[in-house]
Structures are given as C-alpha cells and as structure tokens.
Amino acid sequence: MEVSSRALFTQLHGLLFGAFFLLAIFAVVVELWRTLYEIEPRTLTRAGRSLEHYYLIATVLLGWAAVLTGAYIVYPWYRAIPPAGAASLAQYPQALLKSSPATAGWHSLGMEWKEHVAWFAPIVMTMVAYVSIQYGFSIRKHPHLRNALLVFVLVAFFAAGVAGYFGAEIDDHAPVQGGVIYHLLQEAR
Amino acid sequence: MNSRSPAQAAVPNSAESSLPNGLGAAAILSAGIGCFLLSIFAVAADASKPVAKFFTYYVPTGPLSGVSTTASVLWLLTWFALARVWSLRTVALVKINVAAFVFLVLGILLTFPPFADLLLRK
Fold first, then answer.
1. E strands within chain A?
2. How crowded is the C-beta side of A15, counted as CA atoms within 13 Å?
3. Residues 6+ apart with CB under 8 A from A35
4. pLDDT tens digits, one per residue of A112-137
5. Beta bridge partners of A93
6. A·B CB contacts under 8 A
7. Cβ B33 vs Cβ B75: under 8 Å
8. Subunit contact A75:B64, Cβ cutoff 8 A
C-alpha cells in the first residue's frame, strides 16, 4: 500500500481542509437559521463564547488553507505542461482532461469555475466570523445584519460545494500523480 | 447564591449591544466587492494575454495567483476604509445588503465559464 506525495497533498487540500470547511460552513448555516426562530435569545458562559469564537476562526483557517494549498501546491501540478511528444499524459492532469472530448468539460467548466469561485467561500466566511464575533448575541437586535450573514453563508456553502464537487470529479478523471512514493504498508509475501 | 465560576457565568456585553450596524455593513459590502473584483480580474485575465501575464505573480500557478492576491488585497483595503468611515455610524443596511448581494451574484455569474464566454463572445 503506497501513496505519492502529490496525491497526499491533494487529499490534504480536498479531504481535510476542503471537506471540513464545507461541513463547518453547514454548521454555521444551521446556527444562523436557528436564530430566525428563536423566542428567547440564548446566553453562553464566557467559556462557551470563546468556544464559539474558536470554531469560527477554525472555519476561516480551514477555508484559507483549502484555497491556498489548492492554488499554490496542487494547481501547479495540475496545470503542468507536458513535454512535446510525451508518451503518457498521466502526470499532466489538465492536458489529460483536454485530450479527450469526453473529459475536456471537467477542465473547461469544472476547473475554470472551481479555481475562481472557491475563493468566495473563505472571503465570505472571514466576514461572517468577524461580524459574528464583533456583534455576538446583539446580532439579534440587527435582523438585517443577521439575514445578510445567512444569505452570504449560503453563497459560501454553494461556492465551497462547487469547488468540492468539481475537485472530486477532476481528481477521479485525472488524478494528480507523481512525487515521492510513501510506502504505508508492506504486503506480506 | 450563585455558585457559578467566572467561566460559567453568562456574559452580557454592553459594548456589543450598543454597537451600531456600520461595522457589520462595512464587512458585508467589502466582501461583496472583493468577490466581484476577483471575478472581474479572472474574466480580464481570460480575455487578454497581457492582463494574464500581468496577473502571473507566481509562474507555476499562473494568472490565478495575481487574480486572487490582488482581489484579496483590495477586499481588505476596501473593508478597512469602509470600517473607518462607518464603524461608529448607523447606516442604511438594507440598501447596502442589496448592493453587496448584487456584487456577490454578479461575481458568481462572472466566474461561471459559460456566462463569461458569452460576455467575451468566445
């Protein structure tokens, strides 16, 4: 059982940062939505509020980690240009996808949308975390502010979902390969 | 008798309660503008080779490096400027929310390749 360093970084980008970010945004959606139906505003202890702040900050960090690892570690491997006359395109995912009409759309639609729209999610979640921390419970006194946060969080969820979906499909059709091979488990002979 | 420890005590924060909506409005509008700028830069880099070259801050990543970095920096600057002006004010939040949402939706549309291609007549 082995894994390449490039595949490992891709999994770190998508499965750890990206997937946890998506889940974390969903929890923020649920929490903000819940406040729409609140009769009595809830109160938290100081420790509970700190926990809430840490959660929001962790969500933001996951988002930025996902886009930064994607753009500066995985994407350069994805868009690497194959040398002229390369016998195999396996190490060049973008070229591999574009080499067949059956898979070209995963690049021309999937990657081209994902690489830009993905950035919306951490930008929006940074704003949401900042406003939530600044206003705390008093956000209920500003319904327009709370409603705007909810709409923006839904858009962040959509953007992160688009990035996650196309990332998974692209990796399925043309996985990033190469680099150092790590042997995780030695098969018994 | 209250046996709660300081960590367990509920925290009413009067500073939060009296905070005007300007600080939140600045954050919301700047996020909308930041997303919109990112999409405008992405379309411009897609449409023009010199623009794409200009935005190539890091060659292995290509124009995406400059598009995302420039948009992020401008987003933070816009946020900082708006917060300075609005932080102590109560502003017309509904109008600002609508403007921010329009920027956000336009941003999403412009990042969607079929829509951008339609604009660029590709």
1. 2-4, 181-183
2. 7
3. A139, A140, A146
4. 999 999 999 999 999 999 999 999 98
5. none
6. 130
7. yes
8. yes
Burial environment of residue B74 by CB neighbours within 10 A (0 to 12, 13 to 18, 19 or more): middle
In one-letter notation, the amino acid at residue A79 is R
Name every chain A residue with its beta carbon within 8 A of the beta carbon of B24. 131, 134-135, 142, 145, 148
Q: What is the pLDDT of residues A40-92, one digit of tens each?
A: 777 889 999 999 999 999 999 999 999 999 999 999 999 999 999 888 999 99
> Which residue, among A6, A79, A106, A127, would best test binding to B if mutated, counting the most B CBs under 10 Å from its CB?
A127
pTM: 0.93
Q: Which residues of chain A are within 8 Å of residue B72 when distances are taken between CB atoms?
A: 119, 123
* Neighboring chain A residues of B62 at a CB cutoff of 8 Å: 79
Yes or no, beta carbons of A131 and B27 under 8 Å apart: yes
Two tokens, residue A121: 């999610």
3-state secondary structure A70-125: HHHHHHHHHCCCCCCCCCCCCCCHHHHHHCCCCCHHHHHHHHHHHHHHCCHHHHHH
Q: Phi first, then psi: what are they for A3, rounded to 5°?
A: -140, 145
Looking at residue B90, its pLDDT comes to: 95
